[in-house]
Amino acid sequence: MTLETELYDVLGVPSTATGDDIKKAYRKKARNLHPDKNPNDPDAIRNFQELGAAYEILNDPNTREVYDTYGMQGLAGPGGPQDGPDAGDLFAQFFGGVPGGFSFEFGGPGRPFRKRNKGEDSVIPYDVSLEDLYNGKTVKVNMEKEVECGVCKGSGAKGSAKAKKCVTCDGKGWKHVYSQVSTVRIATTRGSCNDCHGAGEILREKDRCKKCKGEKVVQEKTRQEVHVERGMRDGQRIVLAGAGDQEPGLPPGDVIFVLKTQRHESFERSGSDLLATVSITLSEAILGFDRILINHLDGRGVRVASPQGKVITSGTTIILRNEGMPTYKNPDMRGNLYIVLDVEMPGEDWMGSVDHKALAALLPPKKADIEPLPEIVDKVAFEEGTLAEVRARSFPAGSGFFDQAFPSQYGEGDENDWEDEEGDEDEDDGGPPECQPQ
């Protein structure tokens, strides 16, 4: 025997209706009750919501069985005599997935309006250098926060004056906000009342506290210490609990500093590792070097000696173990420092000051023409250019255009084989860090 029939009555079907009967009845009523067809009916949205919720429950065999056996109480939520899903989850899914945002009132009160249990948090971006994250840093920050007014004790009223109930929200502090998410679904949320700002009551101008002007809170200057610990990362949060704004009757919120790392001239960070580019001369590349390659983030000079007889080509990468970033909460453990060696070629001034024949005798021989010699050889002018000129053309040449052969260079492949250099610049998160010259 069915305990309640209210949902069936909404759809206009008996409790013995089949699943097909329920679907047909819902479709027919949904067309007639849609708010767009009833613009002058103030209850149109509510009626349409009740119809949709009733259909969602009765169309599912599990929830229908629970409803037939226990009524709406069986769908009340965890702890009730139910085998099906929580009705609150079902309503939230149907009405846009907004927790606590839908009040379903088939003979019972709706869900209570959720209020904050503390003041609002203040989120503040905080710029730090790579040196700050490497060495750690403590700074004192002057701030202003809202605290409960000491004169009116957070009431906002002068003396024994009392606030009156807000007529806009009927003292609830919130109003229903409707938004249509599809032709048959309307999301209902609860938004703070604009007239009383969520308080549910309004003070007349003459009844307001002289110090806080009825705002219930006043500004207070504070001085806070921010500790940037060694090894912290970009985007990491430093939380100062209870240092935020306070609201009457609630503990103060938190102040949250979000670290934003500034670009460094010499280093790039990749997790716990550091990357840098260092220039060496042609003689160092051929004969070796033993010198300070780079000044570290703590001011130390880092001396490196290349192996005897090792010829270094431009782009060679060396690894300096345990010279990377300290690990957060374990600063004695460090990552690695990767250094890319860029070989500087001599300038024209140097070339003009040396004996070319003597230099040619010392250097490896020049390359000969390719064999076999082509039947036709054209001599063209030598002219310097830049890769930027190539990429400025109509086709999107990538950064590796001259490094390897792509199929699309020879009429094979498709557009996806090309790399768009401009697109890479816009999407910093997806690409590897760039090394900066020292």
UniProtKB/TrEMBL annotation:
UniProt feature, compositional bias: Acidic residues: 412-431
Molecular function via GO: ATP binding; Hsp70 protein binding; unfolded protein binding; zinc ion binding
Example GO biological process: response to heat
Keyword vocabulary terms for this entry: Metal-binding, Repeat, Zinc, Zinc-finger
Keyword Cell membrane: no
CR-type domain sequence ranges: 136-221
Region called Disordered, residue ranges: 398-438
Zinc finger (CR-type): 136-221
Xref: Pfam families: DnaJ, DnaJ_C, DnaJ_CXXCXGXG
Residue ranges occupied by any J domain in the UniProt entry: 6-71
Matches recorded under PANTHER family: DNAJ-LIKE-2, ISOFORM A-RELATED
The protein's name in its UniProt record: DnaJ-domain-containing protein
